[in-house]
Amino acid sequence: QVQLVESGGGLVQAGGSLRLACAASGSIFSINVMGWYRQAPGLQRELVATITTGGSTNYADSTYYADSVKGRFTAARDSAEHTVYLQMNSLKPEDTAVYYCAADRKVRSGAIKDMDYWGKGTLVTVSS
């Protein structure tokens, strides 16, 4: 089992920045893909970004970003701290959502249906 706990959400003005963190514990050795997702009120949960681990120190992590956040959000992993981050810059009101962290034991695309573990989420509110 893997436990995921998100933090860092809050209220920010449009154009501002926030950094979310997701701390993983438990059987973290089994994780191959970490993802950030969000769900705005009345909308379906959507993929924001994924990090696929390189599998060894010789390979860098690979990242994927949804078009809506590309160039503004950056996902990164601190393997020593068992934590993944989502740096969010140039925030827009439409970024307002509950942000979730998830983990997949297999190397897959990060599709919501494939993720094995989920955190409880952290709320990000961007005011105009």
Number of strands: 11
- Rg for CA atoms: 14 Å
What is the 3D shape? Answer: globular
Q: Averaged pLDDT, please?
A: 92
Oligomer: single chain
Strand content: over 45%
Element-by-element helix/strand order: EEEEEEEEEEE
Give the biggest beta sheet.
7 strands, mixed
| Secondary-structure content class | mainly beta
Tally of alpha and pi helices: 0
Helix proportion of residues, in percent?
under 10%
SSE inventory with pairings:
Layout: E1 2-7, E2 10-13, E3 18-26, E4 33-39, E5 46-52, E6 62-65, E7 73-78, E8 83-88, E9 97-104, E10 117-118, E11 122-127
Parallel strand pairs: 2-11
Antiparallel strand pairs: 1-3, 3-8, 4-5, 4-9, 5-6, 7-8, 9-10, 9-11
Structural commentary:
By secondary structure, the chain is mostly beta strands. Helix content is 0%, strand content 51%. The strands form two sheets. Strands 2, 4, 5, 6, 9, 10 and 11 form a seven-stranded mixed sheet that branches. Strands 1-3-8-7 form a four-stranded antiparallel sheet, with no helix packed on it. The N and C termini lie far apart (40 Å). It has strands at residues 2-7, 10-13, 18-26, 33-39, 46-52, 62-65, 73-78, 83-88, 97-104, 117-118, 122-127. It is globular, with a radius of gyration of 14 Å. Strand 4 (33-39) and strand 5 form a beta hairpin.
